[in-house]
Amino acid sequence: MDEKEVETQNNTLTIEISNEISSETKDDIFDNIKEPRKEIEKHKKSIDRIFVSQYMDDTSTYNEVYGSDDYVVTYSKEDKSFLGWSVKNNGPQQPDVYFKADQIEDLNLRLGTLLSKKILSLYGYNKHWLIDLNSDRTNNERFLKLKQPVDCEKNIYQFFSNDAIGFLPNDLIQVSVRNRKIYKYCLKDRPINTVLWEYSQINDIEIPESLYGQVKNLRCTICRTKLFLIVKGCKTTILQFDLLKMNLERQYIANANSLSSMVVMNTNQTLLAYYCFIFSMKNGMLISYENYGEEPVEFITLKNNSERLVMNCYSNVHKLIDPYQAYDEIDISNDFNKTSVITKLNRKIFIDNGNVCVRNGSDENKLQQLSNEVIYRNSIYTSSVFKIIQSMFKEIIDRADIKKVASPDDKIKLKNRDLYEYILRPNDIYDEISFEHNDIISCCIPFPHILSYKLLNNQDLIIISMEAIEIFALLDKGFKNRYFWKNNDWNDIYKKFEKDRNSIYDINFVNEHYKPLIGRILKYEFNDSKHSIPLPNFMGQNTNHRKTIAEDVISDNLVSSKFGIEMLKIAIKENCDSVVRPIINNTIESIQNYSVNSMTFISLNLPKLCDDYPDYIIKYISYTSIILSPFCDNIRNSKNTSIHSYTNIYIKESHMDKNVFKAISSIYKWLIQHLRIKEEIQTVSFIVPFPQICVYQDDSKKNDHENHVNENNDHENENNDPENCDFNNNDYESHASKNNDHENHETENDDYENQDSKNNDHENRETGKNHDIKSKIITILILILKKMITGLKIIMMIPKSNSIWNEFLYKSKSILFCNIDSNHFYNWWNFAAIIDFKWETFGRVYYYLIWLFYTIFYVCYSLASTLELSDFYFKLLFIISIIFGSTFLIFEIRQILWNYEIYFNDIWNLFDVGAYLLPIITSIIWLINKSQPLWLMAISIILLSFKFLLFFRVIESFGIYFAIIIGVAKRVFPFLVLLFFIVLGYAQAFFIVLKSNITNDGSDNLFNWFPTSLLAVYKLITGDSGSLSSFTYRENPTMTVLLVTFTFFTVIYLMNLFIGLLNLAIGDYNKKEEYLLQKAKIIMEIELFYMLPWQRNNKKWFPNWIYYDLPVTEARKLINAIDNEQTVFNYPPIISEELRNLVVLTDDNNKLENKIDQTKEELKQQMEFIMKNIGVEKDNEEEQDSEEQEQENKLEKQMEQTKEELPKQHVGLKQQMDKHALQMDKLALQMDKLNQQMENIMELLLKRN
């Protein structure tokens, strides 16, 4: 009996094994099996599991490049055997390999199985097996052992998941989150015998040190070429890595408490499912969330390219859901179980009587009918509504003639609502739907000729008119516009209809234009691959309708995540405030749920929002000032006593496979950990809510392309400019006119007046033509100049792209510092974290190198200018100065070419140019003349010294003072201009009054020359009036008046006013944020002008997300200040419940008081219970008790009075003691005087004796 293929009625392909097998097949399949037929029959009767290749039915480029991988393996637990099957669409089907594996014990299917390239990965309990089912191996060689043992513990609740195994097109991947390693094994290097499979490459999973204490629960899974690391914190963060490039692509944030590590994605990598969450892989937004159960299993692509997701719910119940409409579910438990699988292309592979069968999967028509039956919620953006509109379009074009739904004489009742009715009244120019009662119209809406309408179950009315698709909600007393859509083609046809037919219905016009139009709409916007109606054209509506359509989108979480951002882009472009306001408010609210899509949109459009909607961006920046990191679920200890920023987990190539490197690394880590003498403090982690704000575009290729395009455009403009073409024509015309004039001059020589007139005309023409020639020359020069600038930009490698952050730095400070509160509890933390990250990652290395080279330049020029050296050393030092100075000057030129407005707006850049240019000039002069002007040398040294001092700006203790100096100078500059003109006026007045009439006056009168007159007036401001000492006030009354007014108005009034302004300006700029802004601009210059384009594309230096640690005391102070109204914000920051639980201290005293009150209440109740059971005591005992109580009360009052009086008595006694001490001091003085007198008397008596 030959091998055969039987096709059943339901299009099933049954793969049977023939009883007779050729000798060649026996040798290939049943190697080392004594009784193959019996063994296979036993296997077929006891099949427990079916495994399908991960790349089966893969419609991506994988199968095109690497070939088909349609392979199935069946497993028998009873027989402990495997049978491999090649599944093909045509030709007979037969098994490839039979393999008996007695050493395999119970499989742990929770850890997953994987099949690719006929290599099967299986997990047991504390065991892992790799089975190679390729035909080039014998049974003894089928087990593969990796050099790095696979970690697979039994406990699924461990902090780190088991090792994940995956397959790339040419490699096997092993990911060990416990060791933080990724091992790559080349499939071509598989060992033939039982030797260990050597890895070809190792990569490290780098976790920043600040995340060590936060990443406690780390799991991983591999899905084709993507690695997903799942980190459990206060939220669940899913990090998506590309295993081909080993870089982080995107992150997803879910509010999930699941320990699952199962992640699946669809074939074209646009949808991702984790637990009960479905995300878009294009922008990271959450598409839907429905709590169905445990985990997703597989995405299925239907024939119309729509997607379905298989979910494994509780109790092994499998459901098929629409990922865009997750509430539509179908139970497919019979089609998806241990021995039945549905592939990505909706093919069902199952076991039937021991045979592998392949047939069509779920009935797609039935799926569509189920989706169309019921609308579960009040949303118009469902697949059900989409299919209804699609069917309405099909119904319209299926008509022989596209007629209106009713003739002008008809009256159609659409719906009743209480005493009112909705009536459709057709007219010649338009149709009308009115809301009326007893033919009294309350309100109505006109429509330009309705072609079809449909009333939905949720009381919404769909209308397709000649103008557009519209959906209205029929309310109790009126209408609400929910949707309006038409494409550009539709809009053009409708305008043509209005113009050509004056809005009067013409069936010929409709048939001619609208049938093809609807056909195109069904082909593109409403084809079977779509799931929802398109984004509404809200901008074509009036203000109220725009607002209602926007609110309808915002109120639906699923729709707002899909269309909200796109609507906001359009509204911002059109400056539609009525739409921007509610969408931005909704976006801000979604930030609390870590909406990646919303954060990214705000971040990427930050400069435009700052310009057009500053109030809204101020609100966003203020609200998102402190967003808790999704990794953070506890407070941890850190040695970073201030803000410390860091990036996400990333992958880097490992050099640790050698023991030497391992030893050095371990020693280094031990030294870092134990020798850092720093005090540990408690910190809490936050996230900067501006993803991709620091990311640059790939501008290396872009620059080359754009420059090439500009060159071509300039060349084309030069050749195709009509003015340039006219230039040659005008030359020819000018030459021809000259010849004609000459001929006329010869022929009409006798008529003098006529000749004179012609000469005048000739001169006028010559003048006009000369003017044209000059204008053409100027145009050519401008074009040449543009080409020179373009070429210079190419040579100088001027960056054309910029990051959002760098653009944001030059916005108004009212926006930059908008979230700084009145009492500075909040210190610009989000933006300080960005600056800290850039500085610590690359900024400080570049900056200190620049500083070093400048120091060499400074020292060389200073030595050459001040020391007496030989000509050789002079020449050497000046040449070094020219080389370094020219290098620095080139970087300054690059800044000017990049943006001259920004460059010249900063006056300190002029000091930079002077510090580089003047030393170069003086060095060149010395090399030519062997000497240089002393005044030029002195100025050069001063500028070099100032520039050297400016390098200290990055050090905080110095930088704050530089910020004050620079900021105050800018603030008082207008006042200095005013003061200068006052001094100029008085200098001129003194010069006129006091200058000497003698030409060669040899006196020291400073007012004889105007420049020295200016100097003399300046000296008056400083208090030096020596320039007026040679003049008498009586002989020069005018001078006296000028002196009095100048000293009072300028020296006394204006100078004191100037000092006051300086104090105010110092107070404004004596802030840390000014220093940080200054530091940020320095780092920006490093990025743009000292980095190469490929360095600006380094994701480790310019990541999508930045996190930072902050001392918990700072966060606690801020939250307490906000709660107790001790500070004022423009908008108070959003403080999540998780952050409050982590940071805010509980009031222990209140808890104690509550506990005491509760205890008192319990004692009181117990006393009442005892009194009821014991009875009432005698009256006299009560009286005695009352008397005793009164005595006790009196004693207590006396004690309280005594306590109050004691301090007073103490004070009185102290005062008395002080008085007594003074009296004693007086008595002691008197006694001393008496003693002295007695001694004097005794001396006198002795002398007399």
Automatic annotation (TrEMBL):
Matches recorded under Pfam families: Ion_trans
Disordered as annotated region, ranges: 701-768, 1176-1206
GO-annotated cellular components: plasma membrane
Extent of Acidic residues compositional bias: 1179-1190
Listed transmembrane segments: 777-796, 845-866, 872-891, 903-928, 934-952, 972-994, 1041-1066
Biased composition (Basic and acidic residues): 701-718, 732-747, 755-768, 1191-1206
The keyword Metal-binding is annotated on this UniProt entry: no
Gene Ontology biological process terms, A to Z: calcium ion import across plasma membrane
Subcellular location: Membrane
Source superkingdom: Eukaryota
Domain Ion transport: residue ranges: 849-1072
Keyword DNA damage in annotation: no
Gene3D superfamilies the UniProt entry points to: 1.10.287.70
Topology relative to the membrane: Multi-pass membrane protein
InterPro entries per UniProt: Ion_trans_dom, TRPV
PANTHER family: INACTIVE (PTHR10582:SF2), TRANSIENT RECEPTOR POTENTIAL ION CHANNEL PROTEIN (PTHR10582)
Record-given protein name: Ion transport domain-containing protein
Organism the protein comes from: Rhizophagus irregularis
